[in-house]
Amino acid sequence: MGTGRVALLLLATTALLQALLAAPAEGLVRIPLKKRPADGNGGLHDARRRGFLGSSSNDAAAVALNKAEAEEEGDIVALKNYLNAQYYGEIGIGTPQQRFTVIFDTGSSNLWVPSSKCYLSMACYFHERYKAGQSNSYKKNGKPASIRYGTGAISGYFSLDSVKIGDVVVSNQDFIEATREPGITFMVAKFDGILGLGFKEISVGAAVPVWYNMVKQGLVDDPVFSFWFNRHAGEGQGGEIVFGGIDPNHYKGNHTYVPVTRKGYCQFDMGDVLVGGKSTGFCASGCAAIADSGTSLLTGPTAIITQINEKIGAAGVVSQECKAVVSQYGQRIIDQLLAETRPSKICSSVGLCTFDGAHGVSAGIRSVVDDEAEESNGLFNEAMCNACEMAVVWIQNQLAQNQTQDLVLQYINQLCERLPSPMGESSVDCNRVASMPDIAFTIGGRKFTLKPEQYILKEGEGPAAQCISGFTAMDIPPPRGPLWILGDIFMGAYHTVFDYGNLKVGFAEAA
Length: 511
Description:
Layout: H1 7-10, E1 19-20, E2 29-34, H2 60-73, E3 81-82, E4 86-93, E5 98-105, E6 111-114, H3 122-125, E7 139-148, E8 153-165, E9 168-180, E10 193-196, H4 210-216, E11 224-229, E12 237-243, E13 251-259, E14 267-270, E15 273-275, E16 278-279, E17 287-291, E18 298-300, H5 302-311, E19 315-316, H6 317-338, H7 343-349, E20 353-355, E21 360-362, H8 363-370, H9 378-400, H10 405-418, E22 426-428, E23 439-443, E24 446-450, H11 452-455, E25 456-459, E26 466-469, E27 471-473, E28 483-486, H12 488-493, E29 494-499, E30 504-510
Parallel strand pairs: 5-10, 6-9, 17-28, 18-27
Antiparallel strand pairs: 1-2, 2-12, 3-4, 4-5, 4-8, 6-10, 7-8, 8-9, 11-12, 11-29, 13-30, 14-17, 15-16, 15-23, 18-28, 19-22, 20-21, 22-26, 23-24, 25-26, 29-30
């Protein structure tokens, strides 16, 4: 689940369709996803090789037949797409099945779900928990395990049980019962756990990944899986994972394949990155990249991300929200401080935070946990609350130095400009999206282009709309880097095939 991702953008929901694909393709597991349309307030906050049913032809009659056969035998299981940022679905563990929603993550290799023995982490109480005593196929292991992701961590111990994915059952599968999920990341998550689809080389505790056992136990015809993500809210199903092949209904033209250069993540070589058709130069001699279904955005070297964000007019979210607080609420904060209002109550009194009796609490976090109808506002509400609390401290300090009110506000604006954005997320003017440049990535000698509407995440509509750049900075030094992480934004635009049998990954324009 690649590093450097924006925490709230990771928290995602989907709806999983479980289906054993139509004859004559036994051993092909098709998992369609049903996508929930974004509502008026919503917006922000994973694989593939040979032709479907053994045919790589784009013959229209064959495609129509394949689709009809699939629809006949498909079982639809509810799956949600949380704010167009992540896709996850349902699996079953144990006998009888205990159901869990999981992210299918090509950036990690372990399966974990919360344990019924998780007592001290609040996150466990917000999600389904595995009860070993209720499964007839459970086998004890007990080996301790811990995993750290880019925005959270879990720890617990290994257990053994059957795992159902689609209509196939993987027997004797090692997985982690999480007994600790510290922090808020997993508490506000809409998914229960994570099912890693990466190579065994990065599997914690040397556990055999679920995908390896699917192949070993003969549950799929080919060691291939593919991803299709629907990025159009409200238009049909939300996406599909096919284990054992690909569906030609979900891509146009042919796939461009490149060899996997390093096991662990699905790493491959990538060439130049172009902004508006012009080379950025940094990757002209080559960069490494991974396709990661567990990452919402795209991360890359600061030198290129800076160029991209400059061209699209992106500014740090924290800096922008800080300036907005100073502009809209600065004078009110000064007035309340001069009136000797208790500093810890000021941000709640201006409506940017709630007050818990001791200090301000982000209204955004509360709404994510308690009020699903307002969950999409969490990222920005939290930023505004935090910015307000910082501004109060800064202004109080400046007033204590007998600075004039104008100089105080000028100084606070200067401090806002110096604020780094945690995780590197940046906002843009929604009115400028149509005029932003295309961004292209060179893979296998072919340019894969993202249009502005594909790389910008939008929250809300009309004057209240907020837009986030899909690019964040992360510098990984040689010999591992420079490294790009092509997350859901890229995989949504390009149907992605993970060919484990031939150690290659392929991309084609998504249909």
